[in-house]
Amino acid sequence: MELKEKLNILADSAKYDASCSSSGSMRKGEIGSAHISGICHSFSADGRCISLLKILLTNVCIFDCKYCLNRRSNNIKRAMFTPEEICTITLNFYKRNYIEGLFLSSGIIKSPDYTMEQIIKTVELLRYKYHFGGYIHAKAIPGANMYLLKKLGSLVDRMSANVELPTEDGLKLLAPDKSSDKVSKIMQYVKNSQNKNFVPAGQSTQMIIGASRETDLDIMQKAEDMYQNYKLKRVFYSAYIPVNQDKCLPSLITPPLKRENRLYETDWLLRYYGFKVSDLLDDDNPNLNILVDPKASWALKHLDEFPKEINKASYQDLLRVPGIGVKSAKRIIKSRQYFRLEFKDLKRMGVVLKRSKYFITCNGKFDLNKEFLKKEFIEANLVLGEKANSSSNIYQLELFHE
């Protein structure tokens, strides 16, 4: 098979793995960059658009996960790169300024150990033979020998082991060859061993959303647990794409993209806004509100805690106001040291007043008549605002999106 044909097959097969995120490391080498501001198909903090070659070593797989296009029972065209071929492609793409790094995953061929050995051989060639110092994110293969994990971790910037499904029951139903214990073992090892010479950019994982019956509460509790116990950089939520026919899979026509979006918003609240899963979801309300973003939904349930006075509220209180983000909250705290803020000042600071005006006062005054500050009125206007802002063509998040 021609190298170009292999590339077409194995790049296309890799598109369903979303768990590649920014670098965060400064590995040096004769060729390539691992800039700390990130390696992904996105914009970094300094304004650069940066990209990553994302491929599989092979789409041959001994596993038969029901949701996966590459499962062994599917009749699809198969291919496998040699380690040298991956080096050739990576270096040629880099020299043409197409990429800054490599994301390398793989189907399981022969055994987890054999697959890891091939990934390690590829990365060793890039590092030692071709002196490639660019960002490399490699997939750890659950079930492989820990010695191989240690070896791979000393060569790459970031590593990921995908949880795939948030519960053991879901795995048993849709991916019987996989075990959450094997993934947890990898995450624990990476957490305990991480330093500037071992997976310096940390680890990430991915969960498939909508292939099994877990609630949003199940999903976010799993994510919260992994953030706390394994210090993950990111958990990625990938809307289930119906690529296979199976009685155990849901009969979806389109991926649950809006649900995926709400889960990402919730994840952001956990990581940057001081929320806990228990603040947003519980057994009585185990799923997120599709019509309203999770912070606004929380605020509507806790109207007794509002309004927040902009000139007095703490940083953490400001973060709980819909329409106020991390940057705008910091600007508010800094600016009010010098003058008392009015509503006209907030818009210049990045506050989204069409959402926040229901939950704040400036100098004791609301931006609208108090008689309109009823839950039903606020919720209706927030829903209308969401609909006005959303495009008629909902699209899936870019796989390289940070």
Helix/strand class: alpha/beta
> Order of helices and strands, N to C?
HEEEHEHEHEHHEHEHHHEHHHHEH
Average residue pLDDT: 88
C-alpha end-to-end distance:
34 Å
Given the C-alpha coordinates, what overall shape results?
Answer: elongated
Contiguous uncertain segments of 5+ residues: 35-48, 392-402
Radius of gyration using CA atoms only: 23 Å
CATH superfamily of the largest domain: Aldolase class I
Output the CATH topology of the largest domain.
TIM Barrel
- Compute the number of helices: 15
Number of strands: 10
Largest sheet properties: 6 strands, parallel
CATH architecture of the largest domain: Alpha-Beta Barrel
Estimate what percentage of residues fall within beta strands: 5-15%
Strand order of the largest sheet: 3-4-5-6-7-8
Quickly name the level 1 CATH class of the largest domain: Alpha Beta
How many discrete domains?
A: 2
Q: Share of helix among residues?
A: 25-40%
